[in-house]
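Title: Prediction job returns without error message
Component: structure pipeline
Severity: low
Priority: P3
Assignee: unassigned

Description:
Job completed but the reporter wants confirmation the result is attached to the right record. Sequence as submitted:
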Amino acid sequence: MNKDNNVNIPATDAASDVDAIMKKYDRESNQRVWTGTPRLVVKAVMVCFSLWSIYVTLFATFLEEIRLTSFLAAIVMMGFLIYPAKKGEVRPNYMPWYDIVLMILGTGSFLYFTFNVNEILNQGTRFQPYQIVIGIIGVVILMELTRRCVGIPILCVATFFVIYALFFGLTNPNAWGRVVYFVRNLFYTKEGIFSTPINVCSKYIVVFIIFGAFLERTGISNFFIQLANGAAGKYAGGPAKVAVISSALCGMVSGSSVGNTVTTGSVTIPMMKDTGYKAEFAGAVEAAASTGGQIMPPIMGAAAFLMADFVGVPYSDILGRAVLPALLYFTGIFITVHLEAKRLGLSGIPKEQLPKFRTLLQKIYLLLPLVLLVVWVSGNFMTMQRAASLAIVASIAVSLLDSENRITISKFFDALEAGGKSTITVAAACGVAGIISGSITMTGLANELINAIITVANNHLIIALFLTMLCCIVLGMGVPTTANYCIMAATCAPILIRMGVPTLAAHFFVFYFGIVADITPPVALAAYAGSAIAKSNPMKTAFNASRLAIAVFIVPYVFCYSPALLMIDTTPLAVVQIVITSLIGIFSISAGLEGYLWRYMSIAIRIAMVIGGVMLIVPSLITDLAGLAVIAVCVLFQKGFTRKAAA
């Protein structure tokens, strides 16, 4: 941060701690070490990929199959250059011979499709054995790359569905016939690897990832932290409120729960601890807010682009409908943070340490690229990829106004390199998600799962929602948000749609619960990363993060029962009503879980507050009135006790 606000930049040893935490909890951070000339060569590959991706999404007119196959060929090549076979491989400029062989075979298998696309498309279902072998090589090596940069859990899921398809799902009695059919559909059609996830990744997501890399180099993260300091730092428990606001803003751009927890948390968590918050609470606040960044418009991480394509609506529709749920999520965290500060009697940041409004106003231009992006996308003035490309140009332009964060030629290439690196993990996950969804589709397993859950639910929507939530959270504990959403969109979202939930609400439901897995025990990676910085108990931090983010466990149920929250088939009055009742409900639940409102609550009052809050969130006039009555009685009871104690 700047010296203006008197907040010290973390020391070098703190920075090394951050790197260690990232490598422990974020698999994407475990990379090969390249120095000297090899480093420049690898960097040149990443830069060329980013430039090529921007050019292709904007100007290419060749076949879509050429774009998709060449994109994945580049991903495989870059992936093996960056990610070693196991953690801890730190020998500089070392790449074992088997990795070189895998890189060549994997890249070559996708390039074979690229350079023979017309022949492959015209031959129909008549495939030669060598073509099937090439397809098998491509599938296996893509899965191996995904294991390296994403993790084993998604590989286990993919392997399960592949085995199911080959041994149980496909009906051809001949084993080789099943393999041919399976590989042909996965590798040579748009029903497997080259289906919606990788198509959206190569067309939209990659450009937005590059835009995020440029935006970070303009110094916008520090500006967000200063902005949050200026807005909320002086109030009770100011540093925690700063963490909520800044992490929401930064997480919106980064799209990574763990990455954002570590980067912004290295500043905000020590501030919270110094103010008087317990270590477990400080780490939990950062983890919950950073995770919520992925549901914060206008960027919302990569899954929002996929949702727009799956549902068949403009991306701007997704942004507009995500505003109210995101507001409820962060309001819940903010309320809990405030009540905790009041309970502990914590003060805010001293006035002399806060940034001056005039200083913040001088750097307001940093928001211009984001504002332009929102205007261009929401107004449908141009395609999403063109809007993101022009936003990159805008971010470079605004950086020229700041001597400290000016994007020089060196930073320009650094941003392109960072964009290329960040794309590898997302693209690999999207490719494997295509394998999973393709396996489910071609075997008819999706319909069987839908029928099974509907039978178990016995036409009770609440049961179907609960089972879907469990599936999303369990899968999300080891699968990135993007891949999780793709799988759930293919399997669970149709269940909810068949039971009467609007399509968009069903997709938002699985999207939200895929994200919340990052802070849900027992595998809450964002919470564990926060606990490492806070030096707190990881499991206690995870439970605190889940309590702070209680809104995200409730809000998805609200918009499934009352789509007005997503502004679906509603009126302005209905939207206002549900927002007001939901905000009061979130307040009541947060206060009940915190156990404090002016004074400590008894167990009975806490339970009543939670019940009243839930009743307000359930969309019905009767439950709204009953919930308001319960909350009013509890509030008056607490207020009366407070006055009596004061007297």
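Comment from assignee: result matches the submitted record. The chain has 30 helices and two strands.
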